[in-house]
Write a structure and sequence with these properties.
Helix content: 25-40%
Radius of gyration: 24 Å
Low-confidence stretches: 1-5
Number of helices: 18
CATH class of the largest domain: Alpha Beta
CATH topology of the largest domain: TIM Barrel
Length: about 500
Amino acid sequence: MNSTPTPTSIDLEAIEPSRLLPFNFRKVDDAVFVSNALGEWVILNAEEFQSFVHGTLSTDSGRFRELCTKGFVAGEMETSTYQDRYWSRRQHVMAGPTLHGFVLTERCNHGCQYCHSSVVGMDRTDTDMSIETAEKCVDFALQTPNSGLTIEFQGGEPMANWDTLVHTVRYARERNRILGKALSFSLVSTLSLMTEERLEFLIENKVQMCTSIDGPRDLHNKVRIYKDGDTWEQSTTWLKRINERYVEMGLDPMLYRVEALPTITRHALPYWKEIVDTYVEMGCRAVFLRILDPFGFAAFTHKKLGYTIDEFLEFYINALEYILELNKNGVQVMERLAAIMLSKMIGSDDPNYLDLRSPGGSVIGQLAYHPTGKVYSSDEGRMVAAMGDEFFLLGDVNTSDYRELMASQRTRALVLASTNDGLPGCVSCAYKPYCGQQPEYNYVTQGSIQGRMPESTWCQKHMGIFDYLARRLRDSDSEEMAIFNRWTINRPQEHFLQPVGSS
């Protein structure tokens, strides 16, 4: 248990440990949020919590039966059932990396002030990934023992190296006809180099598309510098065009849409309502309110664009409450991070979001491939390298053996550093079953891959949001719970899976 003060005094000598299974707890206002290794939780008032730990809670009460059903009381759940439920949340541990980020080029025609990728000008074709290297990256990625994987085209602006993108898609599809993995492709792009011809290739080859929209036109254009025109107009026009094509193909518009993400800078803080409204007006079903990361150019522009965690949480909660009000008025839109957290707390399936799992996504959840063929622990690890530090370099597709890379001492250190059960502060946290670590973030902000949670802005952000959600779950009525439950529904986008077998 952790050391968070409880609403009432606890007589330690009165505790009956033989009746209690391991749990963590956290004071939330005048109540106590209690969780266990199964991911189950209850919110107890002060008297209930005291009775629970002292073993005096009436065995005839509904609360006692709830605690038994959720695995808090010893002897009330079959050991095999407990084990099955425990490991159902940890299936990712043995699965292997599912996300493979291919940096096709470091060139970009934008000069975004917060760019995480530390991009170069459009004339630097020497930073393009060659077709030969791309094939080696595909061969390397397909060695994952995971039955499914996504190759994500990143940059820079990945469409600046269009020929390699096209070849990679065709080569990976052909290689996978024999392997039979659940293969998918995604493209992270400003859409500024999109044409109808390119769109048809991406549509025909089932490449999912994602872009960045930072809010209303003026806000978006203020930080996403583009000398060749109105980047907001260009991105939103293509977003709408792609969504129209999905409808023309007969795909469910509630499920198949361009994913768009805003990055929240200091300029955005007063405009939480306008940002949400922009996404609703574009027909988006979700908005992912992403905090400014400490990587790439953003590490050097923080004084101009950054803010405190408290300022971000105020912005985030204002936006989330507005989104909830929209839902109550019939507008179905979700906040993606809250939906992920709720899926882990009340959903039937864990979404396997790499930043909120233990062990985390570094290496065993994702790999990043530099244009030269260097392999990094993650996209963030590759960004650290762009800042001049190769700490997260694992190997090279030209020379490295996949198995040796995955079993290396560096890989093991990163896995241990991202395991909540081994980190002070995390091991005793009530939100441990739902949270995770990113060693790359800890390294950049605190100089250690383990991180120090009492000082960690990563921890402060997630703790603040989890506290807010705990309060909402405690106080929500049936209408609000129906909204939360709807947000946890995760329908697979099977259209984007590549065909397997003979052509």
